[in-house]
Amino acid sequence: MSAASTYFSSTYKEARGKFRDAAFAAGARVNSHQNPARGPGGEELWSDLAWFGPEKAERMLLILSATHGAEGFLGSGVEVGWLSNGFPRELPAGMGAVVLHALNPFGFAWVRRTNESNIDLNRNFVDHGKPHPANEPYETLKDAICPRDWSPTGRAEADAVLQAYGGTHGAAALQSAITAGQYRHKDGVFYGGTAASWSNQLLTQLTRRLAQHARKIGVIDLHSGLGPYGVGEIINGHRIERPGFRKIVDWFGGEATSNEGGTSSSAVVEGDTVTGMEMVAPPVVEIAGVTLEYGTLPLKDMVDAVRADNWLHVHGKLDSPQGRAIKSQIRGAFYPDKDDWKAMVWDRAVDVSRRLVKGLAGS
Ligand SMILES: [Zn+2]
């Protein structure tokens, strides 16, 4: 087993313990926020924040994990590695850091992408006082995306509808229809919600707190599920017209992909974390963030795991052979529990973290 493998955990609870141990050992100031829900074993759910450097630093690094709960296995492992390998000590003078463990602790504990209200947190950071973004293709395909019948026959019929759509409109259009986000069906997939969720409020409060002193904030939001196995894609999290977009291009060059520009494995999504931070930070605060997205399985397998998990929590029975099989399926779709994958993940995280800190320091 490589050293990197020891950073990763098998459960939310184990991950939280490792994170807190590593944070205290690295000399962090730690504060925690309890989510009102509970885990599958009745356990408490917390988001933990480890703070380093000056309280009033002008430059702040923010690392986020488990925006999508089931991706917390990945994000937690990277954060524990970051804390355990002296990275807090490498921060340039005058730069602080906040490492936030489990922004969506419910989804992490229950091995779901979504939160306690079936909300996809990375679609939730929109202005809920305005009409929500429309997703007409999802409306057209919703009964095929989330069929009531998840038997082999029901799935085959549903998949035929999706394949026909992809055949007519293209694979990218099909991916967008399913994953871009939707705001009308709370029992559906990639649901953005109709109000700011608990996790959204936590990140919003944190952004306001940071913005009291920080003038430049660099963000790494850790994700898994898209792209080739073990490869960490640097997705530029900004709209092309935002100042942060140019910063990320400066720091990472052509390596940073853009979903708006069509170079990313991700569809264009509305309401992600970095956009949410931009919404609440005053203009004097520059935010430059990336989604570091690690590949796991082929796209269709990942999307099918999300569909299956949604079916299970809406219609199925967790405590059943099928329920256990689906939980194993979704876990594997976001967390290949393999040493080679973890080593690739960690090497890339080291690289991206160092480059982002360097860019932030020089900006
Ligand atoms: Zn994600």
Write down the oligomeric state.
single chain
What is the number of E strands?
7
Structural class: alpha/beta
Number of helices, counting only DSSP H or I runs of 4 residues or more? 13
Bound small molecules, which ones? zinc ion
Strand content: 15-25%
Query: How are strands sequenced across the largest beta sheet?
Result: 1-2-4-3-5-7-6
Distance from N terminus to C terminus (CA atoms, Å) equals 39 Å
Secondary-structure element order, N to C: HEEEHHEHHHHHEEHHEHHH
Q: Mind telling me the C-alpha Rg?
A: 19 Å
CATH class label of the largest domain: Alpha Beta
Task: Please describe the topology of this protein.
Layout: H1 12-25, E1 29-38, E2 44-52, E3 59-64, H2 72-84, H3 87-90, E4 95-101, H4 105-110, H5 136-145, H6 152-169, H7 171-179, H8 198-211, E5 216-229, E6 232-236, H9 243-252, H10 273-280, E7 286-295, H11 299-315, H12 321-334, H13 339-362
Parallel strand pairs: 3-4, 3-5, 5-7
Antiparallel strand pairs: 1-2, 2-4, 6-7
Helix pairs in contact: 1-2, 2-13, 5-6, 5-7, 6-7, 8-10, 9-13, 11-12
The structure holds zinc ion.
Give a short overview:
This protein is α/β, with parallel strands linked by helices and 363 residues long.
Which labels suit this protein?
single chain; 363 residues; alpha/beta; Aminopeptidase; 13 helices; 7 strands; globular; binds zinc ion
Q: How would you sum up this structure, described in words?
A:
With 363 residues, the chain is of the alpha/beta class. It folds into 2 domains: 3-130 and 193-301 and 329-362, Zn peptidases (Aminopeptidase), CATH 3.40.630; 136-188 and 308-320, no CATH class. Helices cover 44% and strands 17% of the residues. The chain has helices at residues 12-25, 72-84, 87-90, 105-110, 136-145, 152-169, 171-179, 198-211, 243-252, 273-280, 299-315, 321-334, 339-362, and strands at 29-38, 44-52, 59-64, 95-101, 216-229, 232-236, 286-295. A 7-stranded mixed β-sheet has the order 1-2-4-3-5-7-6, sandwiched between helices. Strand 1 and strand 2 form a beta hairpin. Helix 5 runs antiparallel to helix 6 (152-169), helix 6 crosses helix 7 and helix 9 packs across helix 13. The two termini are 39 Å apart. The model has no long low-confidence stretch (mean pLDDT 96). The structure holds zinc ion. The site of zinc ion has 4 residues, from strand 5. Zinc ion (ZN) binds at residues 68, 71, 223, 225.
